[in-house]
Specification:
The structure holds two protein chains of two kinds.
Chain A: H1 7-17, H2 24-43, E1 50-55, E2 58-64, H3 67-86, H4 93-110, H5 115-134, H6 139-170, H7 183-195, H8 203-208, H9 214-235, H10 240-259, H11 263-284, H12 287-318, H13 334-347, H14 354-365, H15 370-397, H16 413-431, H17 433-438, H18 451-473, H19 489-527, H20 537-556
Antiparallel strand pairs in A: 1-2
Helix pairs in contact in A: 1-2, 1-4, 2-3, 3-4, 3-9, 3-12, 3-16, 4-5, 4-9, 5-6, 5-9, 6-7, 7-9, 9-11, 9-12, 10-11, 10-15, 11-12, 11-14, 11-15, 12-13, 12-14, 12-16, 13-15, 13-16, 14-16, 15-18
Chain B: H1 2-7, H2 9-26, H3 32-55, E1 61-64, E2 75-78, H4 80-107, H5 113-132, H6 136-155, H7 163-193, H8 198-208, H9 212-228, H10 237-244, H11 247-273, H12 278-303, H13 309-329, H14 333-363, H15 375-378, H16 380-394, H17 400-415, H18 418-444, H19 458-476, H20 479-495
Helix pairs in contact in B: 2-3, 2-5, 3-4, 3-5, 4-5, 4-11, 4-14, 4-19, 4-20, 5-6, 5-11, 6-7, 6-11, 7-8, 7-9, 7-10, 8-11, 9-11, 10-11, 10-13, 11-13, 11-14, 12-13, 12-18, 13-14, 13-18, 14-16, 14-17, 14-19, 14-20, 16-18, 16-19, 17-18, 17-19
Classes of the chains: A mainly alpha, B mainly alpha.
Chain lengths: ~550, ~500
């Protein structure tokens, strides 16, 4: 199968050609064909297919198709399709081209069989995606984009360092399972960690996703972090650290999400929390857990896109994504409301929705680790609170009645289609999980719909809803505070610069006083022009005599 | 006939210019002297290239003058090292003579052209002779030929600036003292050994062992050559001589005279004395190294204050000579190699820079940096050549200066001499100041009012750019020069009795 076209090349070719199509609507329609065409190149290919590119004295495996890469490539293709469909009204060629390159790089990275290829596409996703933020063309988004690209490039550089060291250590650049026993693998691990938004490395995510264009956010939410999850699953499956990192990741965003007012940021925190589940799955590393991770990533990309799309649709119509400024839209945007609730139920893992059948795998796999299992349970409650209830509630119901809400139109048709498509997938996966289970990397004999599972989950959900209702009743729930919440990034965006600038002031003062004192001396030295002008013959001869004397003395000693 | 020529190449190298020289003074045809000198230099260059090619694979050519065998007769001995230096000297001769036609016509009285070219060719003869000979006294003889000729051609700059006369006079006094010291040293060695052939000398010195006389001789030869090669602080004759000499002469001398002196120093230190007795290396370490370090810093520092471009370049030369001596005093194969490659690299760089200065002298009538403001717009090609040469002085990658600095730093690191590395880097940074100072004046400032400057003629631009091009070419592909330098260094290594790392 050497004539197999690389799927990423389809995207790149389209990215080159798309801007040439003058008619905006035609362009949008044609672009929809790109993910389909790209998916067709690998959809029916057999596992084990690979492409080798000879380069210098080594061989790069630029394409490797196996069960793991297949699932991720498939869901990335789906996500690309959904975001292009959702963004059909966009005329901005820059945004379209960067979406294509971004998706193409992500798929290329998933298929990368060696670290060098991975690095190239890794950087490709970083550079292409920042334009989705810059496409908003505001000063704020420019600054955010710079912060975002800084984090992404840092990840890329660490990866590069890791690859170089790894090659030095082992003489191979194959991208296979690694162990954390050398600087090289630690560098690669942290590079993955940055993209995966590990705790304390996560701030770029909540900072940048809400700042992108409303279509850009949908695109961003799908690729970068899931690519990192894929890379971790490929390279560091069964690394125990990941279990604890993941557990922390599922927990802490819950609280920030609960108090956040910007709904896209709420979703970004929730995204981070969902990544935690996947990271736990990778860390456990059993076939069941890895299957859970992959299934969760698959389901997650779809329902998270759906949620971002619904918030985006509201933002598109009302011009705001702040909970405090929204509410009561159920009457004017009923379809969006229904679709949003489907997404919310999926993320909250209601039975018969995709989140349930995916998350159950990870939760079941985590049972040997009691505390982790407990953390995941708490986190699940949190997910329901902030994503499952807060998002639809604050947009469509909330503090305003339908009468008070501004009269807006329903979301545009193409957005509704995109959301319906995603919602349909969420339900289809939830109802017929076998289809998803069939393509997972390891054979699954897991039955999600047992009485015990369903009852446990429903108990959890209903008690959570009860808690929410009670808190609302007594006005204790921090639903819509207009506030800026202090996060870890305060440390490096405020505290460190302030510390540094204060230090710099001190140094400047010290330097000035030192300089002031030395200037006088320096001026005296510098104003003295060295005796360049004709030394007299006598002086010259004196020098030669002195030197001869010194040499003779030394020679005699 | 070709067979005959091939056999006698070493002597032809010297005898051709020696015979041609007086005829330069006799020819009365217009420009005839120049033509004769130029053709002579071409022939000598061709001979050098043949010798270079013959010795490149490590062969040593030993030529017996008049058929008299070595210890008694005079021997010409060509190995990689002096073939390399011969090529530098004769190649510079060709290009500077090409350049000299326009430049000298402007700077030297037409009546004196015949004598000027006679002296010039004699100077070339002397330098080639010093380099090629294997006889210690012969070195002195040719050193005197070249020095006397040099005094004359430096003095011929008197048409533009009368100070050329005092400069030449000072040079004469100092040069004579240096030569005297050298010959005293030779005399002392002769007292010990009774021979003047270098190879034989080395052999007998080794057998003779340590003595006061030997130490005396070593001291005199070291100091005498130190003066000839302008080792700090014996450099004071150099700035004035190079500043007031005609520009073609400055270009020629800066690329050859001090380089040949360094060659002689290397030859005597390694091939004759050979470091068989510890004090030789000690003195190098205690005297030459500190002076070289001081010279490379102080020379560069003083250069930053100069307004006269030629004087600036002269002080920069002192700094660069310091760099070469650093390489020599490391007493390691890599250090020697760095010094030898810098010999070539600095020759091409400095020659092109002096040619630039000469072009300014001719077209703008001044070499004062202040008065050359804005010259970059009026004389773009000339000034661009300065930028190339200047970058090489600083040691920016892709220029030969970088190659030299690289090897030098590497050699210093190999010996673990961190302070020396710092000195090398600092002197490069100071070079940035003095080069930047001129480039700023040439490009950033508007030209003074009412000055008309035209681009230099092609006969000046071509040799200037050949040198500039060489300093780029060998900066990018240094395989030939570094190979030759490495082999030359190996040759010296093999001749000495130091135990090498």
């Amino acid at each position: 199968m050497t004539n197999l076209v690389m799927p990423s090349l389809v995207y790149f070719a389209a990215a080159c050609l798309a801007p040439l199509i003058p008619h905006a609507r035609l362009r949008a329609v044609l672009l929809l064909g790109v993910p389909v065409l790209a998916a067709a190149t690998f959809f029916s290919a057999t596992y084990g297919t690979s492409h080798i590119l000879p380069l210098f004295d080594t061989h790069l495996k630029i394409f490797r198709l196996d069960a793991l890469s297949y699932v991720f490539a498939l869901v990335f293709s789906l996500a690309a399709f959904l975001s292009l469909l959702y963004a059909a009204h966009i005329r901005d060629r820059l945004e379209q081209v960067s979406t294509l390159i971004y998706a193409g790089s992500a798929i290329g990275a998933v298929f990368a069989g060696d670290l060098v290829t991975l690095f190239v596409f890794w950087e490709g996703t970083a550079i292409a995606s920042v334009f989705l933020i810059w496409s908003r063309r505001t000063e704020g988004s420019y600054a955010t984009g710079l912060r975002y690209i800084t984090a992404q490039i840092a990840s890329g550089l660490l990866l590069l360092i890791g690859i170089v060291l790894f090659y030095h250590d082992t003489g191979s650049v194959a991208f296979e399972r690694m162990t954390l026993d050398s600087t090289a693998t630690w560098c690669i691990f942290i590079a993955f960690g940055i993209k995966c938004a590990f705790p304390l490395l996560h701030n770029w995510l909540q900072d940048s996703y809400p700042a992108a264009t409303l279509t850009g956010t949908v695109t961003l939410s799908a690729f970068t972090t899931k690519l990192a999850v894929y890379a971790l699953a490929r390279g560091f499956a069964g690394t125990e650290y990941l279990i604890y990192i993941g557990a922390v990741m599922t927990l802490f965003p819950v609280f920030f999400a609960a108090i956040e007012n910007n709904l896209r940021r709420v979703l970004s925190y929730s995204l981070n929390n969902q990544l935690g589940f996947m990271v736990v799955g990778v860390g456990i590393g059993t076939p069941l857990a890895l299957d859970g991770t992959v299934a969760h990533a698959f389901a997650h990309v779809i329902y998270k896109s759906l949620l971002f799309m619904s918030v985006g649709a509201v933002l598109y119509r009302t011009g705001t994504d702040k909970a405090s400024e929204l509410g009561g839209l159920w009457k004017s945007m009923p379809l969006t409301m229904v679709l949003c609730i489907v997404g919310a139920m999926s993320i909250s893992a209601f039975p018969l929705f995709s989140g349930f059948i995916a998350k159950s795998l990870i939760v079941s796999a985590s049972e040997p680790y009691l505390w982790v299992w407990f953390a995941l349970m708490i986190a699940s409650v949190g997910v329901l609170e902030h994503a499952g209830i807060k998002i639809p509630f604050s947009m469509f119901f909330g503090h305003r009645s339908a009468a008070d809400a501004p009269k807006v139109e329903e979301a545009p048709l193409h957005m509704i289609i995109a959301m319906s498509f995603a919602a349909g997938l969420c339900i289809a996966i939830g109802v017929w999980p076998e289809n998803l289970y069939a393509i997972l990397p390891y054979p699954v004999d897991y039955v999600p719909y047992t009485t015990a599972h369903v009852v446990t989950q429903l108990q959890l959900l209903f008690f959570a809803i009860l808690a929410f209702a009670l808190l609302m009743r007594f006005g204790l729930y921090p639903l819509e505070y207009r506030s800026i919440n202090l996060e870890f990034d305060w440390l490096y965006r405020r505290f460190l610069p302030r510390l540094v600038s204060r230090l710099a002031m001190r140094v400047t003062h010290a330097w000035r006083s030192l300089a002031g004192r030395t200037t006088a001396i320096a001026t005296r030295i510098l104003s003295y022009s060295p005796p360049a002008n004709s030394a007299s013959t006598g002086t010259m001869v004196l020098w030669i005599a002195i030197l001869l004397g010194i040499v003779l003395c030394l020679a005699y000693l | 006939m070709p067979q005959f020529i091939a056999q006698h190449l070493p002597i032809l190298q010297v005898i051709v210019p020696l015979i041609a020289a007086p005829f330069c003074a006799l020819i009365s045809v217009r420009n005839g002297a120049w033509w004769l000198a130029f053709v002579t230099s071409l022939v000598t260059f061709a001979i050098s290239v043949l010798l270079f090619a013959a010795t490149f694979d490590g062969e040593i050519i030993s030529y017996h003058l008049g058929g008299w065998a070595p210890p008694i007769g005079i021997e010409y001995r060509v190995d990689m090292l002096n073939a390399f230096v011969l090529t530098i000297v004769s190649g510079t001769g060709v290009l500077t003579l090409l350049y000299a036609r326009a430049s000298v016509a402007h700077e030297v009285d037409a009546k004196q052209h015949g004598l000027f070219y006679t002296a010039f060719v004699l100077c070339l003869t002397g330098l080639l002779g010093v380099t090629i000979t294997g006889d210690a006294f012969n070195v002195f003889v040719f050193l005197e030929i070249s020095s006397l000729a040099t005094y004359a051609i430096v003095a011929s700059g008197a048409k533009t600036d009368r100070r050329a006369l005092t400069a030449a006079y000072n040079y004469l006094i100092m040069g004579t003292i240096g030569a005297t010291f050298f010959v005293i040293g030779l005399g002392l060695l002769y007292m010990i050994t009774g021979t003047l052939n270098m190879a034989d000398l080395a052999q007998r010195l080794l057998e003779h062992g340590d003595s006061r006389t030997l130490r005396m001789g070593y001291a005199f030869i070291l100091v005498g050559l130190g003066l000839k090669l302008a080792m700090f602080p014996l450099h004071q004759w150099l700035p004035n001589a190079y500043t007031y000499a005609p520009s073609a002469v400055s270009a020629f001398l800066s690329a050859t005279a001090t380089k040949v002196a360094i060659y002689v120093l290397l030859r005597f230190l390694f091939s004759v004395f050979g470091f068989s007795i510890p004090f030789e290396a000690d003195i190098l370490f205690l005297v030459v190294l500190p002076l070289a370090l001081a010279g490379s810093l102080i020379g560069a520092y003083i250069a930053t204050y100069q307004d006269n471009l030629k004087r600036l370049l002269a002080y920069s030369s002192i700094s660069q000579i310091g760099a070469m001596l650093i390489g020599v005093s490391m007493l390691s194969a890599s250090g020697l190699m760095a010094a030898i490659i810098h010999l070539f690299n600095h020759a091409v760089t400095k020659a092109s820079l002096y040619m630039v200065a000469g072009a300014y002298a001719k077209e703008a009538g001044t070499v004062s940096i202040r008065e050359l403001r804005g010259v970059g717009r009026d004389m773009p090609f000339t000034t661009a050549a300065f930028v190339v040469g200047g970058m090489s002085l600083i040691g920016i990658p892709l220029t030969v200066g970088f190659i030299s600095k690289w090897y030098l730093v590497e050699a210093a690191l190999m010996r673990g001499w961190w302070p020396v590395v710092i000195v090398i880097v600092v002197s490069s940074l100071i070079a940035l100041i003095y080069v930047g100072k001129f480039i700023e004046a040439a490009y950033m400032h508007p030209a003074p009012q009412g000055i008309i400057r035209r681009e230099a003629p092609l006969t000046m631009l071509i040799p200037m750019w050949i040198f500039a091009g060489l300093s780029l070419f060998f900066g990018i592909n240094s395989s030939l020069t570094s190979e030759a330098a490495a082999r030359a260094a190996q040759g010296l290594v093999a001749a000495s009795s130091l135990i090498w790392q």
